[in-house]
Write a structure and sequence with these properties.
The protein is of the alpha/beta class and 282 residues long. The chain contains ten helices and ten strands. Helix 3 packs parallel to helix 4 and helix 8 crosses helix 10. The longest helix is centred in the N-terminal third of the chain and has 28 residues.
């Protein structure tokens, strides 16, 4: 986890995204790169009421956008400075966290492309009824980068990675996420492998995962629970919090996104309700 990309979106969650990024960066001595995610122009193309974009309107929008990007850069740099994160990348990799702002990132889609250069992408948890943090940014990072994402909760966390709960359901997606999460798992004080046994897909058990982790030098405990008529996501989140989780490791969208949009699912529930950081991969 030596490199972390932080897409900067103007939202009520931005402090939590930056704080979550700092916690990870200080844990691993990471290089953090901040980029501004600006809304696409077509989203405001009907601002004159007739669906026509005039040159004057475009110029005004671009001026305002440059000002927003500068404000975002100032905010990012000051936030990192206050937390003792160096403002430039060291010449040689080491244990010191550093943060650099890059004036790139013309759209939400860019995050998925740029993210391929990083070990981790930190995004905000989408909030119901608000356009940002953007679900599109999160999904671009999740599906287009090939990298894990670290989803920050609405409230900035005070700690992260001391008690890690793996949300295990036997799936390929979660197995891949465990592999990505190894740096966190190796540094954790406590690791739990939590399974909702009536939602397991064909695959290894939680006890099998515990043995796998032990072979990698990681002590863990398996916890099997029943949903007890709860939504699977609700059951998993409840069991994770009962173990004192300050980081949840979970494979994303074992079931299809379309199915989860219609019927709900564990990933959708986590994205709507989790109050601790989640490490996800697909």
């Amino acid at each position: 986890m030596k490199t972390i990309l932080v897409p900067f979106e103007e939202s009520d969650v931005v402090d939590s995204v930056l704080e979550t990024s700092c916690l990870a960066a200080k844990r691993f001595g990471s290089y953090v790169e901040g980029v501004y995610v600006q809304p696409a122009l077509p989203a405001i193309a009907s601002a004159d009421g007739f669906g026509v974009v005039t040159p004057a309107f475009v110029e005004k929008y671009e001026l305002e956008d440059r000002a927003r990007i500068q404000e975002a850069e100032n905010y990012f740099n000051e936030f990192m400075k206050q937390r003792g994160v160096a403002s430039q990348e060291p010449e040689t990799p080491g244990d010191q966290a550093s943060a650099v702002w890059q004036n790139v990132g013309p759209s939400e889609d860019y995050v998925g492309h740029r993210g391929r250069l990083f070990d981790l992408i930190a995004v905000g948890r989408p909030l119901q009824g608000t356009p940002v943090p953007s679900m599109h940014t999160l999904e671009s990072a999740l599906f287009e980068s090939g990298r894990p994402i670290l989803i920050a909760p609405p409230t900035p966390p005070q700690k992260m990675g001391e008690t890690v709960v793996i949300s295990w359901n036997g799936s390929t997606e979660t197995a891949r996420t465990i592999s990505f999460a190894m740096p966190f798992l190796r540094q954790a004080a406590t690791v739990f492998v939590v399974s909702i046994v009536d939602d397991m897909v064909p695959g290894p058990s939680g006890q099998d995962i515990v043995r796998h982790l032990k072979r990698n030098g990681i002590a863990a405990n398996a916890v099997d629970a029943q949903s007890n008529k709860r939504d699977i996501g609700e059951a998993m989140l409840g069991e994770a919090m009962a173990q004192g989780a300050d980081l949840i490791v979970k494979g994303a969208y074992t079931h299809s996104r379309l199915r989860q949009m219609i019927f709900g699912g564990a990933t959708s529930h986590m994205l709507a309700h989790a109050e601790v950081p989640i490490l996800m991969a697909h």
